[in-house]
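To whoever picks this up:

The parser on our side crashed when reading a file containing two proteins. I've narrowed it down to the boundary between the first structure block and the second sequence. Both blocks are reproduced below exactly, byte for byte. First block:
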Amino acid sequence: MRSPFRRGADFKPELYDEIAPGYYDLVYQRGRGTQWFWHHHRFGVVTEGLPPGPRCVIDLGCGPGTFLGNLQRPFERALGIDLAAPQIAYAQSSYRRTGLEFRAGDVTLLDPAERFDVAVSIEVVEHLRPEDTRRFLAAIHDLLTPGGTLVLTTPNYRSLWPLLEWMVSRIGPVDYLEQHINRFDARRLRREVEEAGFVDVRAQTFFVIAPFLAAISTRLAERVLRWERRLLPACGAELALVARKP
């Protein structure tokens, strides 16, 4: 039986409706700059965590569909879901590919018989209350076939991220201080994923200063990112976790 998932009564969907449809996709399509670098290489880290030849992929909290729409791995079926209907409408009009589908809603609206061998959740759990996160992870566990893979990312609050979050919220169009209500570090994220029933849990961090160098030179930023991931594996502002359902 699929684990029940319900958001708390204090969830504020209007925070996400205020984001212009396709905002993050248009950032990605720029192909340059700090924001593009951040999204492009985050998607790259997520793609590294995918198993070879995924058949059925679900992206929970897909936003405007950028990750699945640009995924270069072959798949039989890919489903992106998000609560923000305007973002889903954008995804449906922007990304059309055989086997690719986008729906407005969350895991509660999925057919209980639907199963996936890969679940991706990019920058979602920080928006959920702690009790909702536990139910969310349990629901993902139920969605996956035995041996299925979970890949998720979230900010690393044991890093420079809190300072970056404060700065970006002050100067940018999105108030992450209000949206991010659940703060993770690698140890807590690993523990909660294991408590949800996953095994073979691996976590890493990425992004120290590299994205900001992209404003000057993409080539320099990419060189520094490679150096950061090799020499500063625990200092990054982002967390990426890969786990398996037994």
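<<boundary where parser fails>>
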Amino acid sequence: MEKVEAKGDAGYDLGVVSINSRVFYVLQFSAVTLLIVLAVLRYVFGTLQGNETLELATRIFDLDRENSVPTWFSMMNLFVASVLLFIITIHCRARKQPLTHYWLVLSILFLGLSAEEVIGLHERVTYFHNVRGSDIKLIRMNAWVVYGSVFAVMIGLYFVPFLLRLERRTAALMVLSGGLFLSGALLSEFLQTLMWDFHPGMRPAGVAAPKTSSTDFLVFLEEGGEMYGVALFNCTIFKEILRLGATLTLRPVPN
């Protein structure tokens, strides 16, 4: 029997999703920029001017809320990173390449980060630490700074051999994107911790920090660093997929 391939009007295989690299890069950075701009506009015209109606109506664009569009986007973009890394993992595994397990660990790591955006593990860790108490003055209100830093150092050391064996530009962009992400995830929270340490009246023990212009700026720094870091990482991995010629095919198999 002759095999017939279904073609669309433009001659493309039906069921094949093609993603233009330039479109992908533009979407990554424009989406992040749009979300940050909307959050800044909400802050300027809503919070600073005391417009409670506008502030309430645009709360879904608040960068500091868990149930918001920015949080949903961050979760989805981290999941996209996990899928892109999994594509490279499958490609390298089929060719028995030595770096396969590193790509797999990265894919699992980003899947975990995607879930963390919804679960809020770092907030739970901080809350648990606050309840249990701490003798360390600097971290008594934000234990995640220490735990997250230790985790980041361990992960970084694990991937040093991997980065040294990658193409130099790819490795440099991965390090840069990781630095952007950590500057948001940890550095801004560390600065916030220092703020509370030198001005203890800003956040009494067991009480959420009040909203101030300083804390709002740190929120923009935190979320912006995280989202731009992931966007740069996704673009880097997408380009690596193009370089390797990797593809992912999903084919249902009957029982």
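After patching the parser it read the second block fine. Residues 21-244 form one domain. The chain is about 70% helix and 0% strand.
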